[in-house]
Amino acid sequence: MTFYAKMLHPDLDPEAVLQDFLTNFLRSDYDLSANGVFVYPGLEKSIKMVKNGK
């Protein structure tokens, strides 16, 4: 949701919000800056779905 909210609030940092969620809520040591952001379905599949109108 925060990635969509960034369209309305350009100063919002969705990756920082996600990192805070992972660290404080899930108690995870996953480092987004080292490992990257994850999405489901995968980015390649999402692009294909958009192109095919699904």
Give a nutshell description of this structure.
The protein has 54 residues and is mostly helical. The protein has helices at 2-5, 14-25, 32-35, 43-52.
Overview of the structural elements:
It contains 4 helices and no strands. It has one domain (2-52). The protein has helices spanning 2-5, 14-25, 32-35, 43-52. The longest helix is centred in the middle third of the chain and has 12 residues, at 14-25. The chain is extended. It is an all-alpha fold and 54 residues long.
Task: Sum up the structure in keywords.
extended
State the distance separating the first and last CA atoms: 20 Å
Helix content: 55-70%
**Mass-distribution shape:** extended
Mean pLDDT: 81
Q: What sequence of helices (H) and strands (E) makes up the elements?
A: HHHH
Taking all Cα atoms into account, the compactness measure Rg is: 13 Å
Number of helices: 4
Query: What is the tally of beta strands?
Result: 0
Largest sheet: none
Domain tally? 1
What amount of the residues lies in strands? under 5%
| Unreliable sequence segments | none
Structural class estimated from helices and strands? mainly alpha
